[in-house]
Amino acid sequence: MDVIEAIKARYSVRAYKPEPVPKEVLTELMETALRAPSWANTQSWEFAIVGGQVMRELEEVLGAKAAAQDERYPDIPRPEWPSPYQERRRELGNQIYRLMGIGRDDMDKQLQWFVHMYRFFDAPNAIIVYTNRGLSEWALLNIGLIVQSIALAAVNYGLGTTILASSVSYPDEIKHLLNIPDTKQLVLAIAIGYLDLEAKVNKFRSNRVPLDSVVTWHGF
Ligand SMILES: Cc1cc2nc3c(=O)[nH]c(=O)nc-3n(C[C@H](O)[C@H](O)[C@H](O)COP(=O)(O)O)c2cc1C
């Protein structure tokens, strides 16, 4: 698969088959993704790759916190998005809710979806991405680059991914389970697994704003 095909094929997968991803596949995928660029080759990233019984425990812990609607306290605070980003964000939520038949006022179904998301959409595996506390914003840019590399490499193996900020909203519980010291900050999680192509939600493709609204050309 060439890189253009992989970029076009990738999308956020929100339903997975239960079969776990073999450790050898995850190892090969991560070895490839580690080729991602970083500021002066600082490689300011670490990963906890989760499967099996530990994955089930992680889903239970996070699902219970989400179901109880406990206050979220992510290591990286959740942002306020001003216009026009807020409108885009709302549009995404509306599109997914409409597709899934979740009404704007149906708090029960919304909570179910929310819990499902915190449980990694039932993916068999997850990658928790973290870094040392106290680094500059550039460390997070490095992480953005490797996270996209993971998502693209996954396509090559017939795997789907969801990048999940929500699933690191309760960092103490995750660190406790995975033995991650508090000198680290959790950045995000990646759900990973084989795609359930029958699932309605996986028919969804998000919009993009037109090229001309984000690009200016100079010297052409
Ligand atoms: C930093 C970051 C955090 C995200 N967090 C979530 C999340 O918590 N829940 C979710 O369903 N999708 C999450 N996403 C996926 C985005 O909603 C998705 O990338 C965007 O809507 C574009 O759609 P696409 O990935 O299908 O192209 C996140 C993506 C990024 C880059």
Report what the structure shows.
- The chain has 220 residues and is α+β, with helices and mostly antiparallel strands.
- The chain has one domain (3-78, 119-204): NADH Oxidase (3-Layer(aba) Sandwich), CATH 3.40.109.10.
- It contains 7 helices and 4 strands; from the N terminus they run ααβαααβαβαβ.
- The protein has helices at residues 3-9, 23-33, 52-67, 85-99, 107-118, 137-156, 171-178, and strands at 46-50, 125-132, 159-164, 184-194.
- It has a 4-stranded antiparallel sheet.
- Helix 3 (52-67) packs antiparallel against helix 5.
- The protein is globular, with a radius of gyration of 18 Å.
- The two termini are 32 Å apart.
- The model has no long low-confidence stretch (mean pLDDT 97).
- The structure holds flavin mononucleotide.
- Residues 11-12, 92, 117, 162-166, 188, 206 line the site of flavin mononucleotide.
